[in-house]
Amino acid sequence: MNAGLELNNVVDQNKKIHPHKFNLWVAIGSIVMMFAGLTSAYIVKREQPGWTSFLMPIAFYYSTAIILISSVTIYLAGKSFVERRMIRYRKMVGATIILGLVFILLQWLGFRHLWVTGTTFHGSGAGQFLYIIAGLHALHVFGGIIALVILWFRARNTRIRSYNRVPVDVVSTYWHFVDLLWIYLFIFFLMVQ
């Protein structure tokens, strides 16, 4: 009877979500609500007189491709971690970091193009919303890059061998989320421009 109780206890523990994963999902829910509110406000505000639209900078198309590739590299990093292929894991995390930085650079170049061409902040509510929405997304990507850098340094530490999968899963899930969020925002701005 005692063995049955222990087995039930193990099964119950396996059904519970790790606190870090739970916190991540709460944060993701909050971020989704924030961006849903911002994109909804964009739709409402664009009906006002004097609203001018903008053309999506070509750099945003490139950044979309880069962030999709980064989703593949973080997936491969997680797979390598599970397989205990630590050298490949470090390389894939490093590649994801670089792709994330390239994404932010391309976003900056896109905004710079909008600024130079006078598309934004000259009576255009669309441009102001674009700066706020895409800028907030870039901040979330930067936060993901910081988490990736921490994972990369932990993987480089040869004195401590931790095969705890939770941090890898949390960062990977977050990274896929910011990738999907950008795809949503990109399609949204293409449809409303």
Write the layout of secondary structure elements.
Blueprint: H1 2-15, H2 19-45, H3 58-82, H4 86-116, H5 125-156, H6 166-192
Helix pairs in contact: 2-5, 2-6, 3-4, 3-6, 4-5, 5-6
What are its keywords?
193 residues; 0% strand; Four Helix Bundle (Hemerythrin (Met), subunit A); 6 helices; mainly alpha
Give a description of the structure:
The chain has a single domain (about 20-40, about 55-190), classed as Cytochrome c oxidase, subunit III, four-helix bundle (Four Helix Bundle (Hemerythrin (Met), subunit A)). The chain is mainly alpha-helical and about 190 residues long. Helices cover about 80% and strands about 0% of the residues. It contains six helices and no strands. It has helices at about 1-15, 20-45, 60-80, 85-115, 125-155, 165-190. The model has no long low-confidence stretch (mean pLDDT about 85). The protein is elongated, with a radius of gyration of 21 Å.
